């Protein structure tokens, strides 16, 4: 391919990126292919092509690695920019990854002073039955014993304790149905519109025994899309960033009773110091999940180039460790193609004759061979259609090099 053809191809890609992402910059409109302003609400930065398996990502830069999962997504937690997606809009069972939504409700009610971290929760008989069922992930909870909200949250997030999730929900709302309503409200606040939520644990409705929802099938199981899980995770991280201080903890002792402790080892094998951690950034959360119907699922978060990313992989085949390997493949694929670029407020963004002005400073992930050339040209403009009316403002031209 000659240089002219390569530049034309790259220019077309950048136009796709801009036409899909300028709404993220605070613009009320973006410039379409014919130069006219059009409304756009979808924020996606990706190549316009996809392979036969439905993968969509940026240009083929560096070594690519496939993501072996039924659904997957990579998203910038702050901006919502999507860097990779595969079947991301389709609902799937999500197993214990739903506990990030459970935690979001608890965090929200703690901030509202409806709960407190040191508040004690007394374990009822149904919760004790769940917590001591060998079929499920748990720490032992004794009927009649009291545990703090903090210790229950820690066990829920570090070792996916199902009984702890149940105890938290009942302490917060009084019933599974009422806690579900709170979960649905937080999901709505996160931008989720198409999810099936039945319980705080991630098991089927029938697995909750006497606490199951009435008039709902015993086989009913939470179903959420990868993109909606990423939205929930981003909402949690943006509103309560300190949650990573819990989810990055490598190990901790759970106080079962005055005479007994249970040693918890974080089951996230990608946190710093764990078997599958990364050298190019730090993974500090969030949640795994596995059931027969959901397969292996993992919602991760970490910082790379000072930007927080969220990834989701759903229904990963194979053994437990493969969900982490596929997440690593996803990070490799994204970080091999994209790098963050900061665009200043008032910047004029150009591709050929197409241009628009940034209403606020933001950071976008762009193909690694994209260059932002800063120029001190005293022009500030108001974009109307394809016409820019200038006045004073430094600007940035997006050029191909």
UniProtKB/TrEMBL annotation:
**Peptidase S11 D-alanyl-D-alanine carboxypeptidase A N-terminal domain span:** 64-317
Keyword list (alphabetical) reads:
Hydrolase, Signal
Give the Gene Ontology MF terms in alphabetical order: serine-type D-Ala-D-Ala carboxypeptidase activity
The processes (GO biological process) annotated in the record are: proteolysis
Residue span of region Disordered: 41-64
Which residues are the signal sequence here?
A: 1-33
**Coiled-coil boundaries:** none
Keyword Signal present in the record's keywords: the answer is: yes
Query: In its keyword annotation, does this UniProt entry include Zinc?
Result: no
PANTHER family with a match to the protein in the record:
D-ALANYL-D-ALANINE CARBOXYPEPTIDASE, D-ALANYL-D-ALANINE CARBOXYPEPTIDASE DACA
- Supply the name of the protein: Serine hydrolase
Kindly list the organism's lineage: Bacteria, Bacillati, Bacillota, Bacilli, Lactobacillales
